[in-house]
Structures are given as structure tokens and as C-alpha cells.
């Protein structure tokens, strides 16, 4: 009987991230801090200590909640950075329960994303989106996706033709 090789999965996170050396992390990048995708707002490095590693002190804001996260890693060690995609959709409507009707370039619609509300990092964003829609403007929203989470992070408005 032949033996069948089995491979243990590296976890759900493996295909959603890529490695990056802590010493290569720069301000403005998106990396995983304490298990959350965060936009880096500050990076400081310390001098080489008695154990031979310079440390990178990385501060970032969670891209979905706005919560501040701080992580420290030797500059020579690998961290992970999430694959982030940004898509643009035309906003058709916002339902009473807060879900947005969105249409992509191909004409496909989706209604599974909530309009930002008072619990969102930018609590005014949802109010601005609703106001622009009620004013009869054409509204397009930016949807950011990372680590199986998707949120509306920005919007643009044009006067209706």
C-alpha cells in the first residue's frame, strides 16, 4: 500500500498575507499588527542591543475600526502584510436597515455591505454619503477588502447628468 502524504494547513491567514521584513516597513504601508490589518502611522527603530538585534517599534491604525495598535519586532524578522484590494462601486440606494445597494463596472449588484455609521472609524462618512444621495448626486463608494473583511472607506460625488 502506498503512503499518501498529507500536509497540514498553515492556517486561513496564509493565503491572505505575504511576508515583509520588519526593517522594511514604512509609514503608510498596511501590515498586520497584533493580528489586525493596520495602516502604519509611525515607525521607530532602536539601536542594536546586547542580543544583536535592532528593534522596530511600529504604530498603526486598524483599517476597519481605527483602533491604535503598537507592535515591536526585531528588524531582521519577518512580519506579515495583508493583501488589500480597493474597489469602486456606484451607490444605488441605502436601505432603512443601513445596507447599501452597490453596482460594479460590470453591472453586478450587491447588498451585503453596511453604510458606515456611528460605530465606524469615520462616523461622519455615512451621514455624508446619505446626504449626497438624498441631494440627487451620483455617488460612488470605495470598498476596501483585507482578511475577509470589507468596508466602505470613502466616497465621491458627481452631479447627476
Automatic annotation (TrEMBL):
For this protein, the record's PROSITE patterns field holds: IF5A_HYPUSINE
**Post-translation changes:** eIF-5A seems to be the only eukaryotic protein to have a hypusine residue which is a post-translational modification of a lysine by the addition of a butylamino group.
SUPFAM superfamilies, sorted: Nucleic acid-binding proteins, Translation proteins SH3-like domain
Q: Which residues form the Translation initiation factor 5A C-terminal domain?
A: 83-156
Q: Where in the cell is it found?
A: Cytoplasm; Plastid, Chloroplast
Q: What is this protein called?
A: Eukaryotic translation initiation factor 5A
User: Record's family?
Assistant: Belongs to the eIF-5A family.
Cellular component aspect of the GO annotation: chloroplast
InterPro entries given in the database record = IF5A-like, IF5A-like_N, IF5A_C, NA-bd_OB-fold, Rib_uL2_dom2, Trans_elong_IF5A_hypusine_site, Translation_prot_SH3-like_sf
Q: Which domain of life is it from?
A: Eukaryota
State the Gene Ontology terms under molecular function. Answer: ribosome binding; RNA binding; translation elongation factor activity; translation initiation factor activity
- Chief location of this protein? cytoplasm
Task: Name the UniProt key words of this record, in alphabetical order.
Answer: Chloroplast, Cytoplasm, Elongation factor, Hypusine, Initiation factor, Plastid, Protein biosynthesis, RNA-binding
| Keyword presence, Chloroplast | yes
Amino acid at each position: 500500500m502506498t503512503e499518501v502524504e498529507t500536509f497540514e494547513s498553515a492556517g486561513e491567514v496564509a493565503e491572505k498575507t505575504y511576508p515583509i521584513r520588519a526593517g522594511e516597513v514604512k509609514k503608510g504601508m498596511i501590515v498586520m499588527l497584533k493580528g489586525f490589518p493596520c495602516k502604519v502611522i509611525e515607525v521607530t527603530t532602536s539601536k542594536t542591543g546586547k542580543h544583536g538585534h535592532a528593534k522596530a517599534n511600529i504604530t498603526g491604525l486598524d483599517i476597519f475600526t481605527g483602533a491604535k495598535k503598537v507592535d515591536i519586532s526585531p528588524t531582521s524578522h519577518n512580519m506579515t502584510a495583508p493583501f488589500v484590494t480597493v474597489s469602486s462601486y456606484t451607490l444605488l440606494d441605502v436601505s432603512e436597515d443601513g445596507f447599501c445597494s452597490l453596482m460594479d463596472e460590470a453591472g453586478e449588484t450587491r447588498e451585503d455591505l453596511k453604510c458606515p455609521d456611528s460605530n465606524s472609524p469615520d462616523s461622519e462618512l455615512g451621514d455624508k454619503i446619505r446626504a449626497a444621495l438624498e441631494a440627487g448626486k451620483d455617488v460612488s463608494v470605495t470598498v476596501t477588502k483585507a482578511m475577509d473583511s470589507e468596508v466602505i472607506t470613502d466616497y465621491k460625488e458627481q452631479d447627476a447628468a
